[in-house]
Amino acid sequence: MENTTKRKEQKRMDDVISKIKAAEEKNRREIKKAQKDTHEIKGDFSNNLRINTDSYAGLFETATTIRQQQQLLQERENSWKHATQRLDILQKLEGKPYFARIDLQEKGEDKPESIYIGLGSFADRPDNFLIYDWRAPISSVYYDGGLGNVSYETPDGLQTVNVTLKRQFLVKDGKIKTIFDTDEVVGDQMLLDVLDDSSTSKMKSIVTTIQKEQNKIIRNTKADLLFVQGAAGSGKTSAVLQRVAYLLYRYRGNLTSSQVILFSPNQLFNDYIDQVLPELGEHNMVQMTYYQYTQRRLPKLKVETLQQRFERKLSTSESKIQKLKNSVVFFKAAAVYASFLEKRGMRFRDLKLNGKILYDHTVIEKIYYSFNENYHLRNRLDATKERLLKRLNRRIEKEATSEWVENILQGADNKELSKLYGTHPRNFENNDEELHFLGRRFLMQYYKKIHSDINRSRFLNINAQYLHFLRSVPDLIELDKHELIAAQWEEGVAGTLALLKKGRMLLEDVSPYLDLYDTITGKRGNTDIKQVFIDEIQDYTPFQIAALQSAFPRARFTVLGDLNQAIFTKKESYTLLDELRQIFANKNIEVVQLTKSYRSTKQITDFTKQVLLNGAAVESFERQGDLPVINVGEDEKRLTVELVAQLEQNEQDQLTTAVICKTLAECQIVSEKLQAAGQRAILIKSENQRLASGTIVVPAFLAKGLEFDAVIMWNADEKNYANEDERQLVYTICSRAMHRLNIFAVKKLSPLFDRVSADFYKRK
Ligand SMILES: Nc1ncnc2c1ncn2[C@@H]1O[C@H](COP(=O)(O)OP(=O)(O)OP(=O)(O)O)[C@@H](O)[C@H]1O
Q1: Which of the ends of the chain has fewer CB neighbours closer than 10 A, N or C?
Q2: 710 is in an annotated binding site
Q3: What is the pTM assigned to this prediction?
Q4: ipTM value for the complex
């Protein structure tokens, strides 16, 4: 019976594939034709176009012809683009036309209809869909429910259908390998098959096995802020990339990939995920790290790097200051401070030329505050610039006939003079007029730097302004509520000043600094971006999120993270959701929780979740593997030998391994040891490196978001992981492992593993 089903399904698939091939042929012809047409139009254009500029009518006619040609070319270009994209999808469908079938019966219909679901839709006749796109409304039924009555959203509202069959196919090169009939939401068997695969250096799409909870994230169109809290490995990143593809499909024509931006934890991660959307037949969205986003705007300052931030040791008062600077309270204080600036307090710089002051900062200040109270910061700045430019023009007018300028003109040679004349006709009424003209031209050149300094608002003194803001903080915020006293705060300000003098800045100062600059210059947000995604949201400060929200005022936000993996913001992350509610006040906020972890075997998930204080919410997926192994040795040399042996074992078992340490310095040491032992391992030093296949050694802060077949946590001893606030870091490291986890420690294991009961791991 099974064989008959398989044969029948294969026959249908063969039939669909041959139709796909025919469609490919047709597309190829269209592409060729569009190319040929373009070529001909261009040829025609140069042969026939007589540029007639003799009369107005002639000019008009020439312009019209050019416009017509351009339109024709544009049309051909569009049809070429469309056909090329279509061909790309068809080629993908040819190897694997679909992965699922559902039979469903609508109310009032007498027999069920079969729907086949694939990466894209395909019809041989209008309205005769042989394949439905996985993002089509009806396809939701496949991901959302089992057999029986299932509802799905359509543009006309909720529809209910009776599902009588759910079938899944494993297909390779157009051949059906296995068929599963299931009443599960998405058959666990299929998911097991997919998850059993070993890792690659690129993330894959999960389109065939999207889970019900994930489907909710993917298809949500109502929330202004969608907050996805999910355990490590629960598919947050995967779901969100599918969501981008979904939104691009759902809003085709109104949303392009360049209007979607994803903030990711590091550059390595960008590299890791960059195949998912192309695999789904879509273009990649804009991707950047928050660091790149800010650094781009501060080319002259050296902003603290991820590594420096991660490895910085803070005193108690420093960490309180950092916490305050990161908060929404601070964001609001900055807004109050800015409103005061409308009356007083702006800091300006002298405008100088060759060391000589042209406009003193007090003069600029007077101008700035000379406008009435209806002027806000932005107009005040514009009006000041205008006034300064006027003054500069007046100065030029006045000096054009002055003695010093005349002397210079007298001494100028022909070449210099002809440069001053430029293309201006030399038909002056008299000598004076000509001298005046030349004088002005000369002075415009002479004062060019001042002109551009005014235009670029270089008279603003943003460093002094930021320090002034920091010094005003005790008047704006009740420091004692943040367990700080004025002296500690002042000390902090002095630290910021000292760094600024060296051209450096801490990460927590970057966002408030840019925010202040934007408020003063009245920079408006980017209204073109419609969807903003932030991965690993727990590592963002509320200030940064608030700043992003004002930078992209028209965008909807999808933020995802795991409060248990806050390796930068640590415990503060647990209040993040409350802070988000303040930032997105009056907006529609939806929270989705993903608790099941798909990445790791049951044994690894059950082990890692016990490291957490509140790990109960993490559910493991029934995929069996070995127990994690903890190896505590007295002697580091011996342990290194065992490390090498473990790496060899992993290689034999064809598992790619990441040796993860806390810091880069530790990584460097262990990678030298491996090298000395003749073991090949690539050290990942910076986020700008590429992810290599084979064994890698990587610091924890760069392993964020990534996964490996096997993980070795190195130096897991009591000295290295002594603090309670490193619990989340330990969890993040261990939860990178898919199939095998080994933990190595010299002498005594970190107490952060004390909570794990002994029958969840093996001791070596
Ligand atoms: N529905 C699914 N079908 C198949 N594989 C899935 C599914 N959901 C998640 N996975 C797999 O589980 C692994 C973890 O997914 P992902 O990296 O998206 O999780 P995450 O929640 O972002 O993890 P982390 O927070 O730890 O970085 C990936 O290998 C992904 O392909």
Answers
A1: N
A2: no
A3: 0.83
A4: 0.98
